[in-house]
């Protein structure tokens, strides 16, 4: 017997095909305007907007519904300063010693370097943590399934929600990010996933002129006719 009762699919909405098409295209147009920004304004952002975006992130699907993520919203100047200091130290190591030539070449068009002023300028740094396992009140561990995939999905929804609300963010991954556990007081069972620098763009913010792959470059469609060979 399942002790969790089932409920009706009340929230789901269906649209006529034309309306679906319009909605799909409108969403695509919205998402095509999303860009990673590295120059931020210090203009404050009301916290309820961040909370709503985080609540949207919390709707993500997750392995066995274990919701294996934790988000820390940092707004304090001193904490941001400590994160910047630690991140810049790691980035210096990365750029000067750890990064392969290939990696540095891939980063070249983005113009990134070891200087991370946005970690202090932006009103919020949202640190995302993956929980490899959960803890019951009595201290027993609960294994999480697909925690990285699930946290990636939640983070994608968060980025989308922030963009939809009219904010910008930078997906920042100083490598390694273990210092975030110490500064933010998160247990070692949580792995820092990434740091989402969030706010308004600086007035004169510029972004790299990059191109996105066309649909045909990253999607294939398979009907029966396209499947070759032995499909047993
Ligand atoms: C997992 C991940 C890690 C990233 N890490 C960094 C980073 O540490 N620093 C940075 O400047 N950009 C970082 N980025 C941003 C990418 O460079 C950016 O998404 C990419 O260049 C495409 O640009 P767009 O987001 O404007 O489309 C990261 C993005 C992802 C998804």
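^ structure tokens above, recovered residues below v
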């Amino acid at each position: 017997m399942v002790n969790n009762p089932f409920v009706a699919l009340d929230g789901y909405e269906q649209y006529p095909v034309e309306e679906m098409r319009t909605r799909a295209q409108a969403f695509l147009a919205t998402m095509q305007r999303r860009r990673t920004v590295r120059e931020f304004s210090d203009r404050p952002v009301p916290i309820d907007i961040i909370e709503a975006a985080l609540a949207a992130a919390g709707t993500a699907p997750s392995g066995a519904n274990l919701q294996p993520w934790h988000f820390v919203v940092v707004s304090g100047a001193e904490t941001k300063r400590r994160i910047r200091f630690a991140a810049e130290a790691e980035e210096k190591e990365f750029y000067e010693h750890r990064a392969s030539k290939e990696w540095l070449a891939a980063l070249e068009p983005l113009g990134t370097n070891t200087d991370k002023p946005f970690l202090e300028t932006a009103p919020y740094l949202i640190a995302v943590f993956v929980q490899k396992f959960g803890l019951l009140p009595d201290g027993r561990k609960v294994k999480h399934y697909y925690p990285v995939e699930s946290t990636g999905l939640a983070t994608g929804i968060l980025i989308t929600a922030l963009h939809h609300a009219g904010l910008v963010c930078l997906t920042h991954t100083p490598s390694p990010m273990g210092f975030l556990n110490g500064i933010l007081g998160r247990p070692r069972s949580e792995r820092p996933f990434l740091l989402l620098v969030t706010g308004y763009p600086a007035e004169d913010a510029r972004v790299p002129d990059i191109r996105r792959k066309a649909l045909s470059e990253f999607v294939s469609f398979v009907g029966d006719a396209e499947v070759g060979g032995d499909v047993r």
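The mean pLDDT is 94.
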